[in-house]
Amino acid sequence: TKRDGDQPEFLQAVYEVLDTLQPVIEKHPEYEANGVLERIVEPERVVKFRVAWVDDSGKVQVNRGYRVQFNSAIGPYKGGLRFHPTVNEGVIKFLGFEQILKNSLTTLPMGGGKGGSDFDPKGKSDAEVMRFCQAFMTELQRHIGQFTDVPAGDINVGAREIGYLFGQYKRIRDEYSGVLTGKGLEFGGSLARTEATGYGLCYYTQEALRVLKNDSFEGKTVVISGSGNVAIFATEKAQALGAKVVTASDSNGYVYDPNGIQLDVVKDIKLGHRGRIKEYAERVPGAEYHEGCSGVWTVPCDIALPCATQNEINEESAEALVKNGCKVVCEGANMPSTPEAIAVYQKNGLLYGPAKAANAGGVAVSGLEMSQNSYRLSWTFEETDAKLKGIMESIVANTLAAAKEYGEEGDLMAGANIAGFVKVANAMVAQGVL
Ligand code: NDP
């Protein structure tokens, strides 16, 4: 705590995991003997660098870049890049730490890493975003590689940014390799990667509902926050599974559409011209817009899928969800629930699917993109989507089995932490003290 006292998000992520690992440590004295806990919370490497670029008016801008190479026990570092003004070392470390266990849960050979910058792409021209990405990759390229560290997208890093980053890597290294995932389909990207996190979240939720409650999305009212990559494709799949999604949001506010969100309108606003969600209510009769994003949790629903950002559901929002009848919270965003919110879910017996399991579909398909790049072939959408569905269903099964083995039957959170941890811990013990 002393060492990372200025990194509250990182400490929050670590404590949540450590709280559930006690029975595992008791059963495996070799973890303690090999200092596994002390080692797993310390990144193998943190790279922090200056990113200088020139804006459209000719002014020099300076941002800070990060890459946290957290753990490589079970594969090359793997995790997204986030461009957002709130990015700092503690945020990237929380995301990197979560990523270790998430990647382990996918069953694919990927270690944990994360990176990004405090650069804010909002309001920047394409040319400015390109110059920033080129400057960012000019430094990052010396630290990554297809067998070392394979970054992907995250908040504000989508197809456009990955394209610019890949181009600059290739130009500097003179090497055409699968060094990034989430690439365009013309240059090594995988079908179904764009949809993977949102679709995977719904496959996970559907399977957890089936196994634990003998229930499904059919006929349910769903509240989803965000309107980015994860939110859009979670909405699409929840609708396909028979649910009515009634909200969408961004950092300014949320829309409530009692008739069910028209996803083509959201896609046109967000993917078409990077607009604000407020526009939805101007275009769709019967929809309401409300300023402030946290109000979205006061909308009555059966299932809530937070898909925007960390700590977006606090205790008060969790209480509001429960009061209005919500029975299920599965997390598309990383760590969207505060510890107090999780305590509210647990006290009220909600089905709670934690991020590191529920949103693992994105990195799972990134792992499949790496396999396709190595084979130099491309699978069809149906093939990749079927693999994704299988992975999400096995995450539910494996986490419930781990929970049962360690006396936490039915606990998806404890199960995810335990199942993710044990594989990495065993690899760390086998490879010696490093
Ligand atoms: P996008 O950039 O596509 O979308 C982010 C959405 O969240 C936008 O609607 C954005 O609104 C909103 N948002 C971002 N920051 C805040 C904030 N501080 N307060 C309120 N709203 C905010 O990102 P993704 O959809 O890719 O990522 C969303 C979440 O899912 C993140 O937690 C990410 O780590 C997680 N995730 C993403 C994966 C992926 O494959 N993309 C994989 C696994 C997890 P605005 O436009 O106003 O900023």
Task: Tag the structure with descriptive keywords.
single chain; 434 residues; alpha/beta; Rossmann fold; five-stranded mixed beta sheet; 17 helices; binds NADPH dihydro-nicotinamide-adenine-dinucleotide phosphate; nucleotide binding
Radius of gyration: 21 Å
The CATH architecture of the domain at 194-349 would be: 3-Layer(aba) Sandwich
Main sheet characteristics: 5 strands, mixed
Q: Unreliable stretches, pLDDT < 50, 5 or more residues?
A: none
- Oligomeric state of shown chains: single chain
CATH superfamily of the domain at 194-349: NAD(P)-binding Rossmann-like Domain
Domain Glutamate/phenylalanine/leucine/valine/L-tryptophan dehydrogenase C-terminal: 190-432
Binding site for substrate: 78, 99, 102, 153, 366
InterPro entries: Aminoacid_DH-like_N_sf, Glu/Leu/Phe/Val/Trp_DH, Glu/Leu/Phe/Val/Trp_DH_C, Glu/Leu/Phe/Val/Trp_DH_dimer, Glu/Leu/Phe/Val_DH_AS, Glu_DH, Glu_Leu_Phe_Val_DH, NAD(P)-bd_dom_sf
Binding site for NAD(+): 197, 229
Topology:
Layout: H1 8-18, H2 22-27, H3 29-33, H4 36-40, E1 45-54, E2 60-71, E3 77-83, H5 89-105, E4 111-117, H6 126-140, E5 149-152, H7 159-173, H8 193-213, E6 221-224, H9 229-240, E7 244-245, E8 247-249, E9 253-256, H10 263-273, H11 278-283, E10 288-291, E11 303-305, H12 315-323, E12 328-330, H13 339-347, E13 351-353, H14 355-358, H15 361-375, H16 381-405, H17 412-430
Parallel strand pairs: 3-4, 3-5, 6-7, 6-11, 11-12, 12-13
Antiparallel strand pairs: 1-2, 2-4, 8-9, 9-10
Helix pairs in contact: 1-5, 5-17, 6-7, 8-9, 8-15, 8-16, 12-13, 15-16, 16-17
The structure holds NADPH dihydro-nicotinamide-adenine-dinucleotide phosphate.
NADPH dihydro-nicotinamide-adenine-dinucleotide phosphate binds next to helix 9.
